[in-house]
What does this fold into?
Amino acid sequence: MTRTRIALVAATSAVLAMTALGTGIALADTTSPAAVVPFTAKYAGKATVKVTNNVADISATGTGTATIIGASTVTGKGKGDASRQPCVPFTGTGAMTASSGSTALSFAVVPGSTGCGDESGNVFSIIGRAKVTGGTGSLAKASGTLKITGVYDRGAGTFSIKFTGNLTTAGATPKATVLRISGGPRNKLAFSKKTLSASAGRVTIVMKNVSASPHNIAIRNGATAKSKIIAKGKVVRKGAVSKVTVTLKKGRYRYVCTVRGHEAAGMWGILVVK
Ligand SMILES: [Cu+2]
It folds into this structure.
């Protein structure tokens, strides 16, 4: 009976560990360039542990919140060795998934993780580590190992778990939308397109000068000629390219040539960011 209880605890721990890992991934998601971010995730839910021949099959599902991931669900499955007491070693895999579904983090419980029962074998303290094994969304390239701490109450069938540590978020940067236009077609003071559209985020406008006059590409922080210039490419001669990259929210932005008099003469357009 004691062994069974231990196995159950182990299973719960594994689930908890999985949850923690998921949280870590979420953190990575938020950050664009590779960065080390402190991560914390807390979940509580239901766990079941079935022991057969000293092998504890653990299954757990909980809800909570995690850094970067936000409101999320943790799920985990694992196995524990119920023959070991009072601390049952367990392993398993799990995932933290944002309620929105946009971000998920998967993890594997690192060997050495255990669930230790109290004297009555009803309440188990979970201590272990969870290694991040993958993710989606902004956490697609998250990595790291998180500390797992938690409690599994066998009688109630409930658990609470916490994942803490640092996650390395690597290159989950969304690609910039690249928009290509030409400047000065037929030697007019205009761009080849009067309007452009892009999704919110990083946007690059590449402008090839096809006229005899020098031109560049720049973006104003708004749709009017009075809006402030927020990015400006170099002024180039015929055949060369001028470009700007900016991160934009939804809205309307005016792209212009900043060579004196060109915008006023018609060398501008509107970039609609949705
Ligand atoms: Cu110009």
Summary: The first strand starts at residue 35 and ends at 52. The helical segments are 2-30. Residues 215, 257, 259, 262, 267 surround copper (II) ion (CB under 6 Å).
